[in-house]
Amino acid sequence: MTQRDREAIASVIKAYDVRGVVGDGIDADLVRDTGAAFGLLMRGEGATRVVIGHDMRDSSPGLSDAFAEGVRSQGLDTVSLGLTSTDELYFASGTMDCPGAMFTASHNPARYNGIKLCRSGARPVGQQTGLAEVSDMLVEGVPSYDGTAGTGSSRDVLTDYAAFLHDLVPLEIRPLTVAVDAGNGMGGLTVPAVLGEGSGLPLSIRDLYFELDGTFPNHEANPLAPENLVDLQKHTVAQGADLGIAFDGDADRCFIVDEQGEPVSPSAICGIIAERYLDQHPGATIIHNLITSKAVPEIVREHGGTPVRTRVGHSFIKAQMAEENAVFGGEHSAHYYFSDFFNADSGMLAALHVLATLGGQDRPLSELKQAYDRYEASGEVNSEVADQQGRTAVVVEAFADETVATDELDGVTVELSDGAWFNVRASNTEPLLRLNVEAADESRVEEILDKALAVIRA
To answer: What residue stretches are annotated with the Alpha-D-phosphohexomutase alpha/beta/alpha domain (predicted)?
Structure first.
């Protein structure tokens, strides 16, 4: 197998996945060897097959085929799902009890692609749980396998995936009109199967950008960026919908707007879903990352649960879910994790829980959300800096006079004397500092934001 430069490999194997520009870092040869390395790693853990899915990007079918060749070269069989969402891939990995690989670059532009990997049962693979070993093999050369090569087959699991989710969240609710922006991503495939006319659910879906198109002709499939929610906001109001739902490119995240087209924060969604799980599992543990609103642990405690704070990133949260025996976990980026979905994240399952809550009572979402939106937040603000560690130290020092506590779970979180807080942390993949601020009102958020950014960008 080919030996490669370690720096080149580090540029595409990130903290949680493999990702880069196709033709400049990501190509069929690299992906084939990555499949071989992953196959060798999984064979060592007793696996005999790997399930593989891909999104709608033009490069995805060819790259997933190359990866499958690599896996089979190590004696493992492959099962191809074809077009699938990431959470559908996790469903297959969980129910088939085998490792999985999803070809997607999620919300990134069309020129990108990558691989999200998981172990049997959709258990995470990250830098500390397998990706480092894959990197080493790509640098040193993947050892060849002397045994018989594996075989390949195909399977369609979309119907089974939809039925599984319906069993988890039965929607015995009032009829709802639901605007959905699939962003030309994989939600265009999964939404009709799970929420559409043939699902038997009391929902009227008003679709937007359901055509699968990896060039993203309408807007980037990244609803975390406010400009990419604008079309859904207008569509929701124009259709007289009860709410709007936007999915990212691989549909493992969902974003919600109310009937007035106003965004519902991911932290509020965390609170809504946490309540549902605590009603079913009194006293249970709920995971939340350190960027979510402090309203989330408040709501969990108010409902008798135990909140556990963790660092950002799906591989960390999935591991913490298992370690803490948590029933639900949420992130500020709209990743939501479920114990009854193999501790994996699912945008569709999160959407079902929101629909169940909204449709189970008579208030509009704009009123319902008020109990969960307790503070004002800046959202994530990025600054390109060369000296991330040095700039972090300087911004922390700038607030020393009003600081009551700090911690370094992920970057540095600073709690201020008036109850406000901010977190500054370095990106895992780019020369960026990420800043998040929360306070009692918008003017205080702006004050902290302006002061912090003046120091960071000096």
So the answer is: 13-128, 162-261, 267-375
Annotated active-site residue in 106, 135, 315, 333:
106
Report if pTM > 0.90. yes
Measured between alpha carbons, how far is 210 from 183 in angstroms, rounded to an integer?
7
Model confidence pLDDT, tens digit, residues 385-430: 988 999 999 999 999 999 999 999 999 999 999 999 999 999 876 7
Active-site residue, 443 included:
no
pLDDT in tens, 123-171: 999 888 899 999 999 999 999 999 999 999 999 999 999 999 999 999 9
d(C-alpha 152, C-alpha 71), whole Å: 10
Name the burial class of residue 271, with classes exposed (0-12), middle (13-18) and buried (19+) by CB atoms within 10 angstroms of its CB: buried
The number of beta carbons lying within 10 Å of the beta carbon of residue 388 is 20
Tokens 């549902």 — which residue?
Answer: 276
The Cα–Cα gap between 423 and 438 comes to 9
Q: Tell me, which fold does domain 159-260 have in CATH?
A: Alpha-D-Glucose-1,6-Bisphosphate; Chain A, domain 3 (3.40.120)
274 neighbors 330 (Cβ within 8 angstroms): yes
Q: Which CATH superfamily is domain 6-156 in?
A: Alpha-D-Glucose-1,6-Bisphosphate, subunit A, domain 3 (3.40.120.10)
> Which token pair is 31?
């992906």
Q: What is the mean pLDDT of residues 190-204?
A: 96
CATH architecture of the domain with range 376-456? 2-Layer Sandwich (3.30)
Segment 42-68 shows an average pLDDT of 98
- What tokens does 249 get? 């490119």
Residue 16 — very low, low, confident or very high, per pLDDT cuts 50/70/90?
A: confident
